[in-house]
Design brief:
Elements lengths: L1 H20 L3 H18 L4 H24 L3 E2 L12 H14 L10 H21 L4 E2 L4 H36 L6
Antiparallel strand pairs: 1-2
């Protein structure tokens, strides 16, 4: 299951980046949504945790990439825009990443320093790859450094959020078993 998760993550990344670069970003958005529905169907027991993680990651990703756009560190070509300042397809990439945290990247759980260090390298590499494919533009000499710092902080936050959401679900399940469910 972890290998399938990793392969589908990579495929979604390429479909989303290439479709954005070709000026049809809605293809990547649609593909990511289909992949996320499939992901949720196989994560039956963790579905609520995954949904919370997707929503949190979408918000964080939109916020961070929008800050990078507004402050002039990255830009998106006009034909890649679908929303803004950070386009919807870029938010889908963040959600796509969130789908790996409890599966193919689960080995990073509670390893915040390692997650930050690895993401400080992998994050900027993904942005550079996106630039080479024509979906994003890195502006200025310091943009790679700023993106690296952003990812060094963002990935540990995402892993921490996943841990919190997982604990919440476990507590709710235990309360349900004990008959301590919240009244509606």
């Amino acid at each position: 299951m972890k290998l399938t998760n990793f392969i589908l993550f990579q495929l979604a990344w390429f479909v989303t980046i290439i479709s954005a670069a070709k000026g049809v970003p809605y293809i990547g958005v649609a593909y990511t949504m289909i992949w996320m529905l499939f992901h949720l169907s196989i994560m039956d027991e963790m579905r609520n945790t995954e949904i919370k993680l997707f929503l949190f990651t979408a918000f964080l990703g939109y916020l961070l990439d929008s800050i990078l756009v507004v402050t002039g560190f990255i830009a998106f070509p006009e034909n890649t825009m679908l929303g803004g300042p950070s386009p919807l397809w870029m938010v889908c990439l963040w959600i796509n990443l969130a789908a790996t945290i409890n599966l193919s990247l689960s080995w990073l759980k509670r390893r915040y320093l390692l997650a930050g260090a690895m993401s400080a390298i992998a994050g900027p590499l993904a942005y550079v790859a996106g630039e080479k494919l024509g979906a994003i533009t890195l502006l200025g000499n310091t943009s790679i450094f700023v993106v690296s710092i952003m990812w060094c902080v963002a990935m540990p936050i995402l892993i921490w959020a996943s841990d919190i959401f997982t604990r919440q679900q476990l507590i709710q399940e235990q309360m349900s078993i004990l008959g301590w469910e919240k009244s509606k």
